From TrEMBL:
GO biological process, one term: regulation of DNA-templated transcription
Transcription is among the record's keywords: yes
Organism (species): Legionella pneumophila subsp. pneumophila
CDD domains, alphabetized: LuxR_C_like
Membrane-traversing stretches: none
Protein name, per record: LuxR family transcriptional regulator
PROSITE patterns cross-referenced by the UniProt entry: HTH_LUXR_2
């Protein structure tokens, strides 16, 4: 389905469904369900949700459950999206759904849509965080210990399978992302961006970055770190790639405020 080049803005009003009715977030639910449901039911799971929260305060959201998705937008739950700092420690993070995290939304999902006992995988990218969310029914409390905790590799495989199967849809959605409302979470996006990027750097890359910010040459950095100038240059080039910089000047601008000298 062709998509407009204009990004969709999520309005804070009751007409949200009318605004979203032809959006990929809703129109793709049935296709995603047809592909993912056979994998889910094998292990007692019932729902799969996918989010990609970008650091520019935009988001992609896809799901197997159209009714929940419609309700999700109607209730403006998109505004509750957060990126807790605990999820920024490692490139890949796992967390169980707890009622103290977005309690109203999780209670609503459990009581009115029988969607509970979930687990999410949070994957850090250079421009975003991806969430792969799996859930079951309200009474299936045993799935946490009996399946999730012992089969994280299976959940990762299903997440990769989803990305592979729906790569074209995700690519089209990226051209028409939903804009998050301007709220406290969005105001922290720059801080979050820096935290994410810093977490992607290796200890040696951080060492090179600190000395680079002090104006040292590759040779001077190498002498302090007991590395060859060529090795230092390799680390700096890796820093450019991770931080999306085309040259050394851009890299130094990115590192300022991100690295403690």
């Amino acid at each position: 389905m062709p998509m407009s080049s204009k990004r969709e803005l999520m309005p804070n009003s009751s007409n949200v469904l009318r605004h979203m009715e032809n959006h990929f977030a809703l129109t793709t639910c049935e296709d995603i369900k047809n592909i993912m449901q056979p994998l889910l039911i094998k292990h007692g799971m019932t729902v799969f949700n996918y989010y990609r929260i970008y650091f520019d305060s935009t988001v992609i959201r896809l799901s197997t459950d159209q009714k929940w998705t419609e309700h999700y937008f109607k209730m403006n739950y998109l505004e509750t999206l957060t990126i807790p700092e605990s999820y920024l420690k490692k490139p890949l993070n796992y967390y169980l759904w707890l009622t103290d995290d977005c309690p109203l939304m999780l209670q609503d999902a459990a009581i009115n849509f029988d969607m509970a006992n979930g687990i999410s995988i949070a994957k850090i990218n250079h421009d975003s965080i991806e969430y792969f969310c799996f859930a079951s029914t309200r009474d299936n409390t045993s799935i946490v210990n009996n399946f999730y905790l012992n089969n994280l590799d299976v959940l990762e495989q299903y997440s990769l399978y989803f990305k592979d199967q729906f790569n074209s849809i995700i690519s089209q959605f990226e051209k028409n992302k939903i804009i998050l409302p301007y709220n406290a979470t969005c105001c922290q996006s720059n801080k979050i961006n820096k935290e994410i990027k810093r977490s992607l750097l290796s200890p040696r890359q951080k060492d090179c970055a600190k000395l680079l910010l002090q104006g040292m040459s590759y040779k001077e950095i190498g002498k302090i770190l007991q590395l060859s100038a060529r090795t230092v240059e390799t680390h700096v080039n890796q820093l450019k790639t991770k931080l999306g910089c085309d040259n050394k000047a851009e890299l130094i601008l990115q590192l300022n405020g991100m690295i403690t000298r």
